[in-house]
Amino acid sequence: MELVVEVKDLSIYYFTLSGVVKAVERVSFNIQRGEWLTFVGESGSGKSTVAYGIINLVPSPGKIVGGQALFEGKDLVKLPKEKLKELRGKEISMVFQDPMTSLDPLRKVGDQIVEVMIEHGIDEKEAWKKAKELLKSVNIPEDRLYYYPHQLSGGQRQRIIISTAMAFRPKLLIADEPTTALDVIVQDSIMDLLNEMKQEGTSIFFITHDISLAVERSDRMGIMYAGKLVEIGKVDQLIENPLHPYTSALFASMPDLWVDKEISAIPGFPPDLRTPPPGCRFHPRCSVFRERKDLKGICDKEEPKMVEVEKEHFVACHLYG
Description:
Strand order of the largest sheet: 6-7-8-3-9-10-12-11
Number of domains: 2
Shape: globular
Low-confidence stretches: none
Largest sheet: 8 strands, mixed
Distance between the termini: 27 Å
CATH class of the largest domain: Alpha Beta
Number of strands: 12
Order of helices and strands: EEEHEEHEHHHHEHEHEEHHHEE
Helix content: 25-40%
Mean pLDDT: 91
Structural class: alpha/beta
CATH architecture of the largest domain: 3-Layer(aba) Sandwich
């Protein structure tokens, strides 16, 4: 399979007045052509920061302090701004979490869609024609091109953002919580749109808190905790054989409509990433660490390495390797 994205030891810090926040540390993974990879994890685990890092769009006061983000072999961390500008919106598109902040409230929707296409070489007349086709593809009447964002519902705004991302049939689409706060009907239609793009060869990097959504749609899943990628593998592997205690705890906290099971919360809180705990960052909340005396002095002292336990199933945990 052809690799579209290859992230190697990516580290991103936020330099704040209260200290350095180690938001992402030495994260590595890849995405193949036409693959859907989803990252899940608690708020503040670094999922969105990884996404911004891939396209070298980390907001201030954040900074990529190490690693590479390769897109078709080109390191986007080191690529000049003009070259990045050529890629963004055309070969790489991103759907942001809040569609209201992704659209200029003072400009009509059509002007904003057309501007993106003109920026990438399409003449204005053709751009307006294509904009109407894009809205039709997401089941929005073409007259909404002449509306301001505040005149549209959240679902319509999000579909417009996705239609803009679809304009050039990008090789990589990054979707950061694109279905947050949407009803299940609109959510399902948006997921279908993304799946159509995947079937046409677009690689999807999807970020969500909704594990059930990730399980339903993804080819592979990555589990983020406190700035670290702790497990990654095929969806079936993670469901049938979750390796990391945090992965097991996440699945245990998820309700199941078809199985009568007790839902258990993960005790404690994620760490302050200005002063993360030594060793495995999950050890203060880990039930396995609390129960096994032989892990004392290991999990709380030594940082676990990512190892391949079964084919394409990796975990960073002292229980393995």
